[in-house]
């Protein structure tokens, strides 16, 4: 039987046509006026469609549409929202003002998941939420960015619990015609598609587009009739299947993504790899430069290296994608020949040690080697990443490993409640909406009256309680609970109680059950009727993570304990909507990772922007955000060898903080029933956390530190038919060949070994450059205070100046180490390569120490 298809579109009256444009741009998701507009169509249907405006327009009755087309009030509101949308799209952006003349730059942003809105379920957790917020802030700031991802037929798992509290998964099929996604077609109405090689097979990929404000997100889907059932399954599930399915997905994302952009006529100047899943794009970029531009492998590598940004997101080994060499060979063996290199050299691109033939191919290692601009997602994560990947750069001190950090943030307008947004607009001024790059406005938080801030937060807590009750009743019905249990759910939680939230992916290192280390003590904490306390849990475990599922089951069982019933609730079905209610309504956000395994985390930032206070282990972003005036730290940043000991000590510290500081401060009220001390702390948190830990600041930092410099290097190397790239590759080859001949022949320093503060400790060195010129190298003194083990702490560098050239290629260099304060100092001398077109001098294998 041959089935033919056609599409049915909503029949909107002409006056309501602007609704179609608004529904197809994710701008609506962070603008309450647009949400209210859609709710006016049919509030119940808005809830039934999970806040999906496209599905809403298709299901609302024609009679309702015709009546609204004659409703002056609705039409006036529609016109107002449409004007705000068009003003947003067309107004001069931060990027245009801050970087005039750079508007022809294009950044290609690649991620395997995007958490933009609950209506578009192509995300699993923190990485996707960060990617989505990155796009939204790029739109707000006018960053010339195009994004690339995959359109998953079933997306990520949807969670539900059985009667025993064990997580079950379902994978409903996404209904793309009724979601804010457009299938791209050419001028003749034919679908735009690209073909790529996946192993020895040809796979066709359909191109779809999601519009996120001013930023386009292009998504690839393999679910096409031309493909075999196995090929169509490649984009079936996010993080689904085995290792073979994962490498297929990442070939489609990386290689297919580059080919898709070219088919659309888009040639990015800079490529941003957000986590290693899309790192195969580096291979495709190399292939194109070699086969189409006639460059050698080394020449192409310089172009790719200088114009690639890579962000690593996790220190957990499982989060850094590895593939067995035989699997890589099965799907990518043809690329070695096309790049003009042998197979072992190809595998070496993805190995920490290229000579170790037993090592797997790692996507993170591939990205780190072929991206000049690399970063972790918090200061601590940058430090952890430098230690973790130091072996890629042998001989380079860990402090100089070229992995920096840009701390994550949140898209504030997506996560604050409309009640809080109204207050911010009123007291922070119009710049809160109109000037996304203006971060200093948060100093005006002190202008907000205490009573107004507190009453607003109380309303949000009440709404959270009612939301939890409704969700819990629905959950209990699905689990087959008794009528008594379902009725009891109508009265769980107390709208006036101190409410603590804990919601995230349930991985064992996040320690979701730490609160239950001492059951009796926890029971005493939450059973005081004069100071009521309640705790809300939510989160998913990966479908194959049984230890994570055990943690969820344990928490669910605790909620059934008579001592905790009604005071502790686990909410199933964690998604963006549930997360939004939680961060907007809790008083305290709890985070208990095992340091230093939390790369950043952003949920606490969302809660802080809504007026909650953070109570967290000093890990990830909280190491930078914490001070005693804005929240509480569990411990002092210790790292334990014994995890059981760590759990006991930190659980006791958590109980102590709750009993002695958090709960007393919350219930310390004045005559007006206002917790003045708590409110003062909230305001400090808003000034110091909300002002900095946001994606507007984060994206501006990416633009200034990475995007614009990378685009400049890219232009420099591409100019005049890649003259710059060819020259740099030739220079690197010369330096690499000559480098073993570099030798520090002699080093002279004062015999006294004592200096006074304010002096300069003089050092001279004779260095044999082995045929290189002084313009080819940096000769540096690496110096700083010595610790008890004779190791240089907080090292600094000073470049030595060439003085005279002696016989046999020996050059004398001289410098003075500044003596800034007293104490024991140490120094070492090193030689590094130097070239005007190098992004940085730390090239693997090119460093020489005395």
Describe the secondary-structure layout.
Elements: H1 18-23, H2 32-41, H3 43-48, H4 53-59, H5 62-68, H6 72-90, H7 94-98, E1 107-110, H8 126-141, E2 145-150, E3 158-161, E4 167-170, E5 182-183, E6 193-198, E7 201-212, E8 215-221, H9 229-232, H10 243-263, E9 270-274, H11 281-293, H12 297-306, E10 308-311, E11 322-323, H13 325-339, H14 343-348, E12 361-362, H15 363-370, E13 373-376, H16 379-388, E14 404-405, H17 412-415, H18 418-428, H19 431-434, H20 450-479, H21 483-488, E15 498-503, H22 519-526, E16 533-538, H23 546-559, E17 568-571, H24 576-585, E18 588-591, H25 603-609, E19 613-617, H26 622-625, E20 631-634, H27 643-667, H28 676-690, H29 695-738, E21 743-748, E22 760-768, E23 777-786, E24 792-799, E25 801-805, E26 810-818, E27 825-833, E28 848-849
Parallel strand pairs: 1-2, 1-9, 2-8, 9-10, 10-13, 13-14, 15-16, 15-18, 16-17, 18-19, 19-20
Antiparallel strand pairs: 3-4, 5-7, 6-7, 7-8, 11-12, 21-22, 22-26, 23-24, 23-27, 25-26, 27-28
Helix pairs in contact: 2-6, 8-29, 10-11, 11-12, 12-29, 20-24, 24-25, 25-28
